[in-house]
Amino acid sequence: MALTGTDLAVRRAILDTFAGGGVPTRASVAQRLECDESTVEASYAALAAAHVIVPDPSTGEVWMAMPFSAVPTEFRVVVGERSVWANCAWDAFGVAAALAADVSFVTRCVQSDRPVRAGVRHGVAFADAGAVAHVAVPAARWWDDIGYT
Amino acid sequence: MAIGQLAALARRWYRDRLAPDWQPRDRAASQALLTAVGLTGPHWTLPG
Predict the structure, then answer these.
(1) I need a surface site. Which of A65, A74, A90, A139 has the fewest CB within 10 A?
(2) Contact criterion met (CB < 8 Å) for A8 and B22
(3) Separation CA A132–CA A118 (nearest Å)
(4) Stated pTM of the model
(5) What is the pLDDT of residues A126-139, one digit of tens each?
């Protein structure tokens, strides 16, 4: 089902909130768009069906709106004077792309548990020597359990 | 994969995410982005 103009406005409100370093709620999105929460909830359902957002199954609030995460992860991305959570290394670099900004983040090597520094500086990606990224789940199954992916 | 390859994918995947005229990408367009950075083969094939 195609997304409506309201769905897209809700999506934009969600992303703008994350981009500013905040975490959106149904109430804050409704307030921002001057609509009622039931309208926002309907858009959340449409956006989730389209794989645009991932609601928290227990609260119904936004858990992920890629590249952003509402909850702490191993990827706290520093953007200028603020920071945001990303879902994975792909999304951490995605924050730089979405915001057209330089970023930095420190995560952990899943094998050695050592910190790995990476980011984008002057538009160019960097990372500690020897760093590589793993995408273990095949693309065909990314959305089987996106929280794990 | 190399970090440069991942960053190149992220740049293509997310660069329009905050654009005012953003619309969801269809499967073919997403597959093309993977292919454009050299991610091909069964592991990188999106569901049909």
Answers:
(1) A74
(2) yes
(3) 11
(4) 0.94
(5) 999 988 888 889 99
